[in-house]
Design goal:
Layout lengths: L4 E10 L2 E11 L4 E6 L5 H8 L9 E4 L2 E2 L8 H5 L2 E4 L11 H11 L5 H14 L15 H13 L5 E5 L7 H16 L3 E6 L2 H6 L3 E6 L2 E5 L11
Parallel strand pairs: 3-8, 3-9, 6-7, 7-8
Antiparallel strand pairs: 1-2, 1-4, 4-5, 9-10
Helix pairs in contact: 4-5, 5-6
């Protein structure tokens, strides 16, 4: 099986300096992967390299068949269409309805047929349990519902992998559990999940592969009983 995401001896930039050296990471279809560690250890910087927001200058890297070292600027949107990205702060357009938020993304990625757009919006909203919320404004939704809209948005173009950067960071514990159960459901349906988190309870309660960022490195933790220092 070919990895969806492949990094080998990759130096990960964080601004004008390297934050992670010699990263090797292979993520396969159906994987549920956590990237954990203290603030400033390079977790989000890894996500930025995967989405081509930051340039990989050394080592090997490929995402969904795109070579990160050879990637042309004009090809970056096509790479990103193979990915779904979920943020901590939802990043919804607050002056548009849920339906309009999703339509904006579909039209921006080349969808034109009105019926196909409507059908796809209905499909993804149903998959996250928000089939009746299409005409709501974001401010009319709870934080958990807004994050579900963000997850629905990430599913629009049938991604091979969802990158979730602290998706429960602004949610209470019960709502965070709801979001994790949703991500686990999508994972069982075949979507790989890569999740950045500070919350140790999450990867204890919802097991997956765990990469730990520490001391300018990021390595997979394979021992029983993961001990991660989250002290800032």
């Amino acid at each position: 099986m070919e990895p969806i995401i492949h990094l080998a001896k990759a130096n990960i930039p964080g601004g004008d300096h390297t934050v992670v050296y010699d990263l090797s990471m292979d993520i396969y279809p159906g994987d549920f992967v956590y990237i954990v560690g203290k603030v400033g250890t390079g977790k989000t910087s890894i996500i930025r390299v995967i989405t081509a927001e930051s340039r990989l200058e050394s080592g090997e890297g490929s995402v969904c068949g795109f070579d990160l070292r050879k990637l042309r600027t004009k090809d970056i949107p096509y790479l990103r269409r193979t990915l779904g990205v979920v943020f901590q702060d939802f990043q919804l357009l607050m002056d548009r309805t849920v339906e309009q938020n999703l339509e904006f993304v579909l039209r921006a990625t080349g969808w034109k047929d009105r019926k196909k757009i409507d059908d796809r919006i209905n499909e993804v909203l149903d998959s996250v349990g928000l089939a009746t919320k299409a005409h709501k404004m974001p401010h009319q939704l709870s934080g958990g519902e807004q994050q579900r809209v963000a997850i629905a948005r990430s599913l629009l173009n049938s991604p091979k992998v969802i990158l979730a950067d602290e998706p429960t960071g602004n949610l209470d514990g019960e709502t965070a559990d709801d979001i994790l159960r949703l991500l686990c459901k999508l994972n069982k349906e075949g979507v790989a999940i890569v999740m950045v988190t500070h919350n140790k309870t999450i990867f204890e309660n919802y097991p997956g592969r765990v990469f730990v960022c520490k001391d300018e490195a990021c390595e997979e933790q394979v021992d029983e009983g993961i001990d991660v220092d989250f002290t800032i």
